[in-house]
Recover the amino acids of this structure.
């Protein structure tokens, strides 16, 4: 599958999928949850709304997307991401920008990670920004790029400098892989699929394996209601599950690391 394959579609998408997480040591601990997320083509969408009764932009609804939840919360989203890329020496991501994130549910959202997929005008995937949040209200952006187009299933790396979990030290690094394309068989043949894999090595070897997968559907009233009732209060559940899994690790005596002083740097590679 090509990571830039879905860039040709200009319409917002609501993706149904699953998040998986596996800790390899000192105890083996894993979980998986069904969930959904949205993918928005920011250049094609502009300042427009979604044309849905139950999913709104910048106003309260059952489901909603607020521009102020992303970027620096002040600038228009395209201005912010284009400025971030330019400041890091990426000047040719002049094609579509897809933002993959979770929406607000009844006005509440917590996004552990959002992805900005930044394409060139020819459709090639030029860079990805992983926008990471922790439960302390802090965030950090990891810029993933190679100096040119990102190839099929290419592994991208970033040194870990941001505290996320008290059960992981701030050392080592992440390995990212992204896939996208259309299913060729099965009940959802022809539908667009996305997969993001994030593995973490802490310096002693592989520690965590994480993935986020989704099947794209149109962002419309029917799918918005399906999402709302299939996964009720999903974003509230994200925060609850983070603390529930943390309690399980604590009860299993996994080493606990206090939160270090947050880094001043806001973007890293």
């Amino acid at each position: 599958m090509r990571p830039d394959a879905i860039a040709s579609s200009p319409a917002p998408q609501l993706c149904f999928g699953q998040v998986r997480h596996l800790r390899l040591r000192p105890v083996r601990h894993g979980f998986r949850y069904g969930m959904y997320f949205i993918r928005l083509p920011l250049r094609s969408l502009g300042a427009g709304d979604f044309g849905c009764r139950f999913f709104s932009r910048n106003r309260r609804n059952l489901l909603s997307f607020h521009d102020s939840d992303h970027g620096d919360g002040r600038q228009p989203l395209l201005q912010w991401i284009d400025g971030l890329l330019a400041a890091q020496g990426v000047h040719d991501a002049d094609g579509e920008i897809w933002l993959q994130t979770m929406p607000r549910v009844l006005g509440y959202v917590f996004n552990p990670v959002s992805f900005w997929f930044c394409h060139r005008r020819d459709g090639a995937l030029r860079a990805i920004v992983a926008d990471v949040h922790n439960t302390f209200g802090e965030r950090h952006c990891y810029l993933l790029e190679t100096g040119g187009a990102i190839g099929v299933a290419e592994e991208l790396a970033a040194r870990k400098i941001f505290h996320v979990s008290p059960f992981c030290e701030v050392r080592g690094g992440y390995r990212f892989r992204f896939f996208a394309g259309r299913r060729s068989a099965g009940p959802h043949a022809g539908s667009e699929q996305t997969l993001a894999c994030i593995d973490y090595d802490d310096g002693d070897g592989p520690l965590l394996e994480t993935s986020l997968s989704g099947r794209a559907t149109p962002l419309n009233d029917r799918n918005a209601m399906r999402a709302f009732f299939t996964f009720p209060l999903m974003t509230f559940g994200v925060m609850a599950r983070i603390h529930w899994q943390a309690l399980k690790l604590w009860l299993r005596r996994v080493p606990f690391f206090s939160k270090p002083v947050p880094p001043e740097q806001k973007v890293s590679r």
Remarks:
- Residues 1-8 have pLDDT under 50 and may be disordered.
